Amino acid sequence: MPALFGFSAAASAHTPRGCAEARRASGNLEATVSTSPASASVLTSGSEPAFPVFRLLVLAGAIFVSVSSEFLPTALLPNIAADLGVSESKVGILVTVFAGTVALTSIPMTILTRRHSRKALLIITLSVFAISNVLSAIAPTYETLLATRVLGGLAHGLFWAVAGPYAALLVTPRQLARAIALTTGGGSLAFILGVPFAAALGFALGWRLAFVAMAVLVTAFLVLTIVALPSVDHRPRLTTGAIAVPLRQDRSLRAVLLVAVSVLLLATGHNAFYTYIAPWTIQIGGVSPDLVSVVLLAFGLAGLLGAVLAGVFGDRWPRLFVNVAGPAVAVMCVLLALFGHGFIAVVVLMMMWSTSFGGLPPMLHTRNLHGSSVPMRAISGSIITTAFNIAIGLGALVGGVVLDHLGLAWVPWVSAGIVIVGAAFTLATDRARIAAHPADAHRG
User: Fold this and answer.
1) Do 411 and 286 belong together in one domain?
2) For the Major facilitator superfamily (MFS) profile domain, which residue ranges apply (predicted)?
């Protein structure tokens, strides 16, 4: 596998700038090694340690139930609206409120808990997910359901700020892209199994039972987390002679913020359409309500394919992958608006849309970790989590406004426009992002 950070300290050391970059890269690598038992064996034995597949699969499972919990209202939108006597756009606001809570609390909670055990925080957040799903299942009114979503959002923001950097602590730098692709694959699996299963269960037995089933799944992965995941030392250690730099002065912060803006734009455009995928599929796509779960299953499978492609090609062509996938999402949204009529057409085009977008989250998470110094990683994880969740909430809000004022048929057009802006920004700021942290970021 190519070097994850994509640079050669020895080769670049022939220039003064190269020497500085090599020293900085060496310092970052040493800091990473000091926080990861697996990485330490790289220097002591000179061999690559075993890839911790089972531990990463447990973490992927925790991410699976987290993402499934977040997007349950999307799968159950028509059912919840009918049962509680509110509009579909108002149910869409449940996604906005959840994501808004994450956006507002992720960074402060990450700072407040930065000295606490990563494993303990995973256990606490998963416990809150289980409780919030049970409370959602028994919510008597829309307002009560809204409050349970706020509770879930509080846990979700901290969970993602911990889960991403936690994966990095289990592997060596060379294994990072594979580890992130595997763990974020849990999010893709949520759209393959979690969301379609919830939709099928909701249409067959009611939306409340879907929340109960999700609470049971969360509890199962909570137990696995307690049993299988190790406690890790996440605190960065300075190398000999190094001086601690305040995070606000860390030069990699600029690279992280540029990635965050790309995430915000690309994911907002995607979610403006995705939040209302169920009503669009029925009303515009002409698909029977009984087949919506099949459409969502196909969408999820295609998203997993996108994540797999990111794992296979992401190390070799990271910039090309991101710069192609973004515009491809916009093109697929336009094609759905023009030709998405009938079950076959809807399934095929949605799978192409999902494949295009499926590789972006793992690639953007990996790009963020590439561009972050080791001390910055916990905060950078919360920044990217905040960006993704602002995008989820903002996308749901924008899609709802378009639905109410222009109609469902316009939603994919608006979605495509926002994604194009995001793709253009990502391409235009590529050199500035790389320059902000050249030793680690220029491959991603």
Assistant:
1) yes
2) 54-434
Domain annotation covers residue 195: yes
> Does 20 map to a domain?
no
- Residue 117's pLDDT is what? 84
What is the spatial distance between Cα 314 and Cα 306, in angstroms, rounded to a whole number? 11
Q: What share of the chain is helix, strand, coil (3-state, %, to 5)?
A: 80, 0, 20
Does 31 reside within a domain?
A: no
CATH number, position 104: 1.20.1250.20
Q: How many CA atoms lie within 13 A of 38 on its CB side?
A: 22
Residue numbers in the chain where pLDDT is lower than 70:
1-48, 173, 233-250, 374-375, 377-378, 437-444
Q: Each residue of 84-111: pLDDT tens digit?
A: 988 888 888 888 888 888 888 888 888 8
Co-location of 155 and 268 in the same domain: no
Picking from 208, 233, 258, the residue at the C-terminal end of a domain is: 233
Which pLDDT does position 36 carry in this prediction? 42
Tally of structural domains, the chain = 2
Contact 304, 354 (CB under 8 A): no
Looking at residue 124, what is its pLDDT? 95
Q: 334 and 284, same structural domain? A: yes
Q: Is 241 exposed, middle or buried (0-12, 13-18, 19+ CB in 10 A)?
A: exposed
Q: Say what the pLDDT of residue 28 is.
A: 38
285 and 335 fall within a common domain: yes
The pLDDT of residue 408 is 92
**Residue 127: what pLDDT?**
96
Residues 287, 293: Cα–Cα separation, whole Å: 11
Question: Nearest 5°: CA angle at 68, between 391 and 300?
Answer: 85
- Are the CB atoms for 296 and 195 separated by under 8 Å? yes
CA atoms of 35 and 170, how far apart (whole Å): 9
Residues 287 and 197 in one domain: no
Residue 200 shares a structural domain with residue 64: yes
Same domain, 113 and 261: no
- Do both 61 and 136 map to the same domain? yes
Provide the 8-state DSSP code for 47. S
Q: Are 305 and 398 in contact (CB under 8 A)?
A: no
Instruction: State if pTM tops 0.90.
Output: no
Half-sphere exposure at residue 248, Cβ-oriented, CA atoms within 13 angstroms: 0
DSSP secondary structure letters along 80-96: HHHHHT--HHHHHHHHH
- Predicted pLDDT at 378: 66
Task: Give pLDDT, residue 367.
Answer: 84
Domain span including residue 63: 51-233
How confident is the model at residue 198, as a pLDDT? 78
Rounded to a whole number of angstroms, the CA Rg of the chain reads: 21
